[in-house]
Amino acid sequence: GAVVSQHPSWVICKSGTSVKIECRSLDFQATTMFWYRQFPKQSLMLMATSNEGSKATYEQGVEKDKFLINHASLTLSTLTVTSAHPEDSSFYICSAREQGVPGTQYFGPGTRLLVL
Amino acid sequence: GENVEQHPSTLSVQEGDSAVIKCTYSDSASNYFPWYKQELGKRPQLIIDIRSNVGEKKDQRIAVTLNKTAKHFSLHITETQPEDSAVYFCAASSNFGNEKLTFGTGTRLTIIP
Fold first, then answer.
1. Cross-chain Cβ contact A34/B95 below 8 Å
2. Which of B36, B43, B93 lies closest to A103 in CB terms?
């Protein structure tokens, strides 16, 4: 099956620093990638949709200047949490949809972010 | 936008018995309904999905049914085993736009040995 990797798997940082998370589709091309945030014992909340070569589409309530998304190639999307604060601590998961295959999304292993 | 409701939030089932999780959706344009299993600290794993052109799909012990008229779909797990214990999420999306998934709130399934 389609494999999505995510790096790093976990990160601890000081408040005010920026953190970059990478999401890669390893064996398929993904024109669209999605970024989710999941708090403990809660569902996945979509933050933004990342399209290769164009600006990301952010969900209501998600600050685009705080969560910078770049989708520079068909296999890589990055999420940068700028000036991170403790309330940004969460589990960030990306998913990728295979080009030409409607609907199905494959998830990365997630990145656990802890902001001190 | 789409709204997906999922019930129950927790479910305990004796090993060997069946488990049923139900979801409803609001957007009649939705036509793709996947189910994901998520173990603690892990990624969601797609276990089965159904598209709106069929009413039922089965894969070994797992089955999904879809009622487009009533806008609800259900996950059925038969002959449950301890390794089925996890959180299960339903989701819905349409072919339009970016096909983003809207997730249900999740069901924590516990299989009692």
1. no
2. B93
